[in-house]
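for the recovery benchmark. tokens below, seq after
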């Protein structure tokens, strides 16, 4: 298992107005999976290619178990990178594609055959040894690419948008397979994605980038429960934002006063965030952290119901629509047009700085 450290890693392309990656510092634990997440153009693929040795950093360092590998050629880094378009050799069979890396290393034929059979069983493709890539589905091609990467036993596995070319059903299957393989091999894995759900399902930790800069790094739960800024919260979506002014552990808002337990920020302008499932609808007998709103719409989703509620201050309506997730049966209790009480538990409110 290999620990990967990025130290102020920077890449400026010739003629570029700004760095594609700017002073990126991360420690990616050995045997764990890290997602480089962000929108198109944020620098995540550039960072991955610098780790692979396909792009030379402008500044900074890359360490494997404490040793710099920036000057080490790609073929000697003991990393394997699987691309989103698979890059299988069309003139080779499945078994030849999977065993190619071992053949290039001079491994004997019998060992290659045994290892290929093991890898195809691992990725759930037994019996397809003699097929050519064009005879496989997109999901099967992705499995072959994964087997080809794993057979050489790399120190680090790099995946570039591994599921982006698959339909929803196949994405689910491949997510499960990649997770199972990583757990079995305890292989340090770094993958690039723009899909929040994919990152949350597969990664032990997520690095979220915007314009080449790191905005937050940590476990998936932190991005939902403790976003560091408004941009992080909005990228993960589904968050209610309430503008206010913090004084101690109290937030003054147009909806009233709310107490919170996230008092790390200094007093001043803030955004109080709360996820839809954190808001309790229809609560009575509670004196603090209460608001009122009018049900504007509701959707029944089988296991739960989702409401849009326009918040009220006194007798007037504010231009603030909150999303609330509640038990499925509540859709019959709170019809459209009804005024309801909303309880915002202090422990569910998280504050982020107000941005200009």
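predicted aa per position
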């Amino acid at each position: 298992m290999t620990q990967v450290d990025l130290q102020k890693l920077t890449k400026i392309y010739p003629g570029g107005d700004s760095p594609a990656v700017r002073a990126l510092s991360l420690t990616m634990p050995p045997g764990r999976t890290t997602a480089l997440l962000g929108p198109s153009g944020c620098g995540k693929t550039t960072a991955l290619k610098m780790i692979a040795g396909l792009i030379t950093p402008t500044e900074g360092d890359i360490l494997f178990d404490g040793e710099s590998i920036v000057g080490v050629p790609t073929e000697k880094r003991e990393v394997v990178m699987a691309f989103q378009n698979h890059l299988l050799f069309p003139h080779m069979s499945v078994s030849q594609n999977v065993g190619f890396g071992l053949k290039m290393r001079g491994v004997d034929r019998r060992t290659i055959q045994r290892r290929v059979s093991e890898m195809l069983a691992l990725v759930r493709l037994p019996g397809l040894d003699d097929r050519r890539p064009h005879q496989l589905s997109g999901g099967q091609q992705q499995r072959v690419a994964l087997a080809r990467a794993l057979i050489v036993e790399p120190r680090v596995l790099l995946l570039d948008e591994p599921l982006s070319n698959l339909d929803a059903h196949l994405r689910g299957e491949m997510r499960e397979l990649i997770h199972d393989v990583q757990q079995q091999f305890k292989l340090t894995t770094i993958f690039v994605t723009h899909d929040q759900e994919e990152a949350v399902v597969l990664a032990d930790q997520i690095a979220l980038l915007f314009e080449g800069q790191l905005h937050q790094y940590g476990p998936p739960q932190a991005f939902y429960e403790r976003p560091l800024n408004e941009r992080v919260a909005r990228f993960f979506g589904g968050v209610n934002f309430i503008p206010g002014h913090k004084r101690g552990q109290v937030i003054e808002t147009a909806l009233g006063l709310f107490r919170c337990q996230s008092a790390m920020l200094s007093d001043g302008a803030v955004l109080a965030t709360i996820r839809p499932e954190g808001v309790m609808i229809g609560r009575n007998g509670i004196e603090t952290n209460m608001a009122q709103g009018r049900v504007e719409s509701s959707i029944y989703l089988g296991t739960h119901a989702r409401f849009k509620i326009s918040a009220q201050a006194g007798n007037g309506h504010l231009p603030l629509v909150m999303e609330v997730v509640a038990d499925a049966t509540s859709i019959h209790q709170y019809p459209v047009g009804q005024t309801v009480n909303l309880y915002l538990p202090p422990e569910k409110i998280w504050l982020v700085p107000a941005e200009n």
